[in-house]
Amino acid sequence: MKLQDKVVVVTGSGNGIGEAFARRFTAEGAKVVVTDIEAEACARVAREIGGVGLACDITREDGVQAVADLLVRGIDAERFLILSPGSALLEGLAAKAADYDGWIASHAPVVSG
Prior knowledge:
By secondary structure, the chain is α/β, with parallel strands linked by helices. The chain has one domain: Rossmann fold (3-Layer(aba) Sandwich), CATH 3.40.50. Helices cover 52% and strands 16% of the residues. The protein has a four-stranded parallel sheet, sandwiched between helices. Residues 87-97 have low confidence and may be disordered.
């Protein structure tokens, strides 16, 4: 990959596949912004890979705005956004799918970014 000195924002990168993306992109030379709803996991991954951590919920407008603000504030590089949702897997897909509000919350990052 040609990610040297590029900025990559990986949502949901405090654990799971998002964390794997963050680690791989760092290994490829990217400057990674770790975002996750779980603040401790976000901080841990950011610290371990030498990235920037931003604990936020991208299913909420203020979370999306926080990511956008971080990207436009002082970052003069090509930027990429990797959406890595997976909240349904954390609490059981069947349980989330059975509840409409839970289903919407689980799939909002995929559908609306």
